Amino acid sequence: MSSPPPTSPVHASSSPPPQSSPVPTPNPAQTITTPATPTSTPPTTSQRHVSPIAHPIPTPTAAAPSRRAQKAAALEAKIAHLESELASVQAQHEKLEKELPEEKDPDKIVKAHIKRLHVYNETKDVAMGLIGLVAVNRGVGVGEVLEEFGVDGKD
């Protein structure tokens, strides 16, 4: 027996394809809205999920406000102490600024310092010469005369 030739599904029906009809759009003036109503009742206590781990909510005790008050008082005392310390440091800063030389140019400051070192060295040389004369006059060493005057050999 021979079977009929296979037909494709597209050509299987001889009816024309269905025509699509436009979907009617509702008129907003004709639509009616109804309020939503709950479809189920809320679960009762026995139906709610209860965690096996208890998480108690801490309740404020009478001691908590006093601890907060103590902390606040301690912080206020610390702030007052720091403010007084700041005022003291600022006063010291102002005093030291007044003691600074008026000259701000580093080259001039260095030159003035070198000049003072020269004066110091010349004065020390004269003083050591006089101490040497005293030592020769007494017939003792310079170290003994320095010790007598309370001057260290390194000065």
Q: What's the topology here?
A:
Elements lengths: L8 H4 L50 H37 L6 H33 L3 H7 L7
Protein name: Swi5-domain-containing protein
GO biological process, one term: meiotic joint molecule formation
Family: Belongs to the SWI5/SAE3 family.
Could you tell me the radius of gyration in angstroms? 53 Å
Count every beta strand, where a strand is a DSSP E run of 2 or more residues: 0
End-to-end Cα distance, whole Å, is 138 Å
Q: What's the helix count?
A: 4
Q: Mean pLDDT, nearest integer?
A: 76
As a percent range, the share of strand residues is: under 5%
Low-confidence stretches: none
Sheet with the most strands?
none
Order of helices and strands: HHHH
What sort of overall outline do the alpha carbons produce when their principal axes are compared?
Answer: elongated
Coiled coil: 72-99
Family: Belongs to the SWI5/SAE3 family.
Biased composition (Low complexity): 28-72
Pfam family, one: Swi5
Q: Which keywords apply here?
A:
elongated; 4 helices; 155 residues; single chain; mainly alpha
Q: How would you describe this structure to a colleague?
A:
The chain has 155 residues and is mainly α. Among the domains are: 66-100; 104-155, no CATH class. The protein contains four helices and no strands. The chain has helices at residues 9-12, 63-99, 106-138, 142-148. Helix 3 crosses helix 4. The longest helix has 37 residues, at 63-99. The radius of gyration is 53 Å and the shape is elongated. The mean pLDDT is 76.
